[in-house]
Amino acid sequence: MLLRRRRSSSLYEEAVRLMPGGVNSPVRAFGSVGGTPVFMKRGQGAYLWDEDGNRYIDYITSWGPAIVGHAHPEVLAAIQEAAADGLSFGTPTARESVLAHAIMDAMPAIEMIRLVSSGTEACMSALRVARAFTGRTKILKFEGCYHGHADMLLVKPGSGAATLGLSGSPGVPESTAQHTLTAQFNNLAQVGETFANNQGQIAAIIVEPIVGNAGFIRPVPGFMEGLRELCDAHGTVLIFDEVMTGFRVARGGYQSLCGIKPDMTVLGKVIGGGMPVGAYGGRRDIMSMVAPAGPVYQAGTLSGNPVAVACGIKTLEILSRPGAYEALAARCARLTMGFKSAAEEWGVPMTVDHEGGMFGFFFAKDPVRNYDDAKRADLGAFKKFFQLMLDDGIYLAPSAFEAGFLSMAHTEADIDATVAVAKKVLKQVAAHG
Ligand SMILES: Cc1ncc(COP(=O)(O)O)c(C=O)c1O
C-alpha cells in the first residue's frame, strides 16, 4: 500500500515559507528520513488521520504524552469541565495540589514540587536550584541525552539536534557552554575522572535514566548506582530527568525500577497528558530554596494552568488503574519481539529493547550502550524501514535517534498488524542491502 499525501505536501510548501523548516519543533521534520512531514488532522485512540484522510497506527503518541490514547473521552470531559470554569486565573487552584499529590505518591523522592509548562523549563529551573543549593557552577550531562533547549544544555545534545548532526548550537555563548561537562553514558570511569578533574565544582549531574533521545539506551548494571555514589561522595545533586520515562516506563518512573533515589526529578510529557505541564521537585531542603520560600527565582504566567492540570490529573488517574503498565509492557514486548524475529528471518541485524510503554530498536549487530554506538548503527536501513512503514500506515519517529511510545489504546491486533507490515518491509530492507 502506498499512501498518497497530496494535501500534506501542499500544506508543507506553505508552512516552509512561514516557519523555519516548515515546523515548530525540529523533530517533526523529515530531513533525515527523506520526504515531507505528514500533517495530521485528527487522533483517536491508537490512530492518527492525516489531512489526506490516511489512517496511521501511531507509535509517537505526541512524543510520549498521549499514553492513554488520543482523545480519550474521560480526559476530554475533564478538560471541558475545567475549561467551562475559565482558562487561567494566575492564582493558586485546588487542582494543582491534586496533581502534586498524584505525582508525589508515585515518586516518594519528590518531597516538594513546582509545576511549570514544559520539560525545558523544568530542566533549566532544576539546574538553577541545584547550582544555588551547592554554590557551584559546573554541571555534568551525558552525550546524546536531551534535556530541552536551554543554553547550558545544548552541549552534545540528543533528539532533534542529534538527528541534524549538531553537537551544540550557535547562539550559545562559550561562557555558558564551558560550565557544562559531558561524559559518555554508561561510562562510569569517565564520570569518575571528570569529578577528579573538577574537585568541589560540580553542582549537579543530570541524566535520562533510560536514554530516549539517542534511541532507546538502557543503563548497564551498576551505572546508576555509581552515579549515586559519586554524587554522595562529592556533594553533587543527582537529577533524574524523567520527562520521558516518568509515568511511562512505570508509574514511579525509572527511579521506582532501579531503586535509586535521585535528589531531584524533572517531569513533563505524560504528567500533562497532551497539554503543557512540566514539573521539577525533590528533597525538601533543596526545593525550599525556590522563591517565594527561598531566594531562587523561577516563575510562569501559565504555570499550573487549570485546564492543563485537569488533563494531567485525569491521565494519571486512568494510568493508576490495575494492569495499565502490565498491558503497556506486554504490548511493547510483543511489538519489539515481532520486529526482532522478522529482522532475523531476513538476516537484518537489529537490536530491540523496551521498558513499560517505551521501546526502541537499532539496525545494529551489537548492543547499543551509548551515543557513539547509536551513531554507528545502520542509518540507511532505518531510513528505508521508516519510509516503507509510513507508506503502509505505520507512524514511527522520523529519526533513528528517538524512542518509540505505545498507548493503552494500542490493541494486540494493532501490534500484530504492525508486525505483519514490518515483516514485509524488512524483506525489502534486506534486499536493499
Ligand atoms: C528527557 C527529556 N527532557 C526534557 C525534554 C524537553 O521537554 P519539552 O519538549 O517539553 O521542553 C524532553 C523532550 O523531548 C525530553 O525527552
Description of the molecule:
It is a single chain. The protein is of the alpha/beta class and 433 residues long. Helix 7 packs parallel to helix 8 and helix 14 packs across helix 15 (412-432). 39% of the residues lie in helices and 14% in strands. The strands form three sheets. A seven-stranded mixed sheet has the order 4-10-9-8-7-5-6, with helices on both faces. Strands 1-2-3-13 form a four-stranded mixed sheet. A three-stranded antiparallel sheet has the order 11-12-14, with helices on one face. The protein has two domains: 6-71 and 322-432, Aspartate Aminotransferase, domain 1; 73-319, Aspartate Aminotransferase, domain 2 (3-Layer(aba) Sandwich). It has 15 helices and 14 strands. A hairpin with a 2-residue loop joins strand 1 (40-44) and strand 2. The site of pyridoxal-5'-phosphate has 17 residues, from helix 4.
Descriptors:
14 strands; 7-stranded mixed sheet; Aspartate Aminotransferase, domain 1; 433 residues; Aspartate Aminotransferase, domain 2; alpha/beta; 4-stranded mixed sheet; 2 domains; single chain; 15 helices; binds pyridoxal-5'-phosphate
Ions, cofactors and other ligands present here are: pyridoxal-5'-phosphate
Q: Radius of gyration from the CA trace?
A: 21 Å
The coarse overall form would be globular
CATH architecture of the largest domain: 3-Layer(aba) Sandwich
The number of strands is 14
The description of the largest β-sheet is: 7 strands, mixed
Q: Roughly how much helix do the residues carry, as a percent range? A: 25-40%
Whole-number average pLDDT?
96
